[in-house]
DNA sequence: AATCGCGTCAACCGCTTCGCA
DNA sequence: GTGCGAAGCGGTTGACGCGAT
């Protein structure tokens, strides 16, 4: 005889106030309960989930735990170079629209991307003594970090000891797709497509070039190590040496107290990374789509 | 061995948006 | 048009792990 036959109906709390709400880290048991419930009833109606599953958690908490951790699609582990590239770009377009950015990175959650941004990107800005939203930092991202990321992706693909698999092939294709954008305008796409990054400026590149596309990038060395005063004056030349197409007037000057001041004297800076038509050309929908497809392939 | 500092990331909080009656 | 509850979103916090001292 079960409780229902005896006329006993278990009390179901109707509000969070009626529940002895639990907070803090989830236990394995709670995870199992939530998984089991969602597997049977599906996602959504999170307040009901909280009430009916027996979990002493708020609906919000259940939703968050499911979306950020328990969902089968959730992809854990280091943010790959391609993913970083995509995050930088999409953030330049949409700013802190984390969930929107996450939609374009298969298996990644908004929380993860937000954390990446705060722990890595903002740290870079801090180390350079820039505001993360400042034009200087945007320029640094645009002219240093992104080309460097692309270079690293390329290095990974080119390396004999790297990943000779489809990853390498698709990466090369992607880079080529950037390089081969045809437009009547001088484009940043061409610039970064043919830029020759001086390996001496990038210690870890001057050694092995076999780092995996999924290697976690050192958060400290990313931008700052190739952005020190000795190297700064070389950047415009590096770009120009690469293609001869680089026409934007980027000047690096010395500020007081040895602070580097980058000045990109473009006429217009629309997007986060400066934009104008140059970045728009690189990051057209086709290229973003292409990069996304690679990420879906990886996932 | 102890503790300190720092980085990471899961989880919470408060606000906004959405959907429905 | 309005009110209300649910869901979603972004900012922030705090626990934890790990390396340095």
Automatic annotation (TrEMBL):
For molecular function, the Gene Ontology terms on record are:
DNA-binding transcription factor activity; sequence-specific DNA binding
Location of this chain's protein in the cell: Nucleus
InterPro entries this protein is in? EOBI/EOBII-like_plant (IPR044676), Homeodomain-like_sf (IPR009057), Myb_dom (IPR017930), SANT/Myb (IPR001005)
Entry GO terms, CC:
nucleus
Statement: the UniProt record of this protein carries the keyword Transcription regulation: yes
Where in this chain does the record put each Myb-like domain?
Answer: 18-70, 71-121
Domain named HTH myb-type: residues: 18-74, 75-125
Key words of the record: DNA-binding, Nucleus, Repeat, Transcription, Transcription regulation
UniProt protein name: Transcription factor MYB108-like
Q: Which organism is it from?
A: Durio zibethinus
Gene name, please?
LOC111314047
């Amino acid at each position: 005889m079960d409780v229902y036959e005896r006329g006993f109906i278990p009390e179901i709390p109707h509000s969070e106030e009626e529940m002895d709400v639990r907070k803090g880290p989830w236990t394995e048991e709670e995870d199992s309960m939530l998984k089991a419930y969602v597997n049977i009833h599906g996602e959504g109606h999170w307040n009901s989930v909280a009430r009916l599953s027996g979990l002493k958690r708020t609906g919000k908490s259940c939703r968050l735990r499911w979306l950020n951790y328990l969902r089968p699609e959730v992809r854990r582990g280091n943010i790959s170079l391609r993913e970083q590239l995509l995050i930088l770009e999409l953030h330049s377009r949409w700013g802190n629209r984390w969930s929107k950015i996450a939609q374009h990175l298969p298996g990644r959650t908004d929380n993860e991307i937000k954390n990446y941004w705060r722990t890595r990107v903002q740290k870079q800005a801090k180390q350079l003594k820039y505001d993360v939203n400042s034009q200087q930092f945007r320029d640094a991202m645009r002219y240093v970090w992104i080309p460097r990321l692309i270079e690293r992706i390329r290095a990974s693909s080119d390396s004999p000891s790297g990943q000779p698999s489809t990853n390498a092939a698709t990466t090369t294709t992607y880079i080529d797709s950037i390089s081969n954008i045809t437009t009547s305008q001088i484009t940043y796409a061409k610039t970064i497509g043919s830029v020759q990054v001086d390996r001496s400026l990038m210690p870890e590149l001057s050694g092995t070039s076999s780092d995996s596309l999924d290697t976690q990038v050192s958060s400290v060395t990313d931008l700052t190590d190739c952005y020190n005063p000795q190297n700064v004056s070389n950047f415009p030349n590096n770009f120009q040496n690469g293609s001869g197409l680089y026409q934007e007037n980027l000047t690096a000057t010395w500020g007081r107290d040895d602070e580097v001041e980058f000045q990109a004297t473009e006429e217009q800076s629309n997007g986060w990374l400066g934009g104008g038509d140059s970045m728009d050309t690189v990051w057209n929908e086709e290229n973003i789509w292409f990069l996304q497809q690679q990420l879906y392939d990886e996932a």
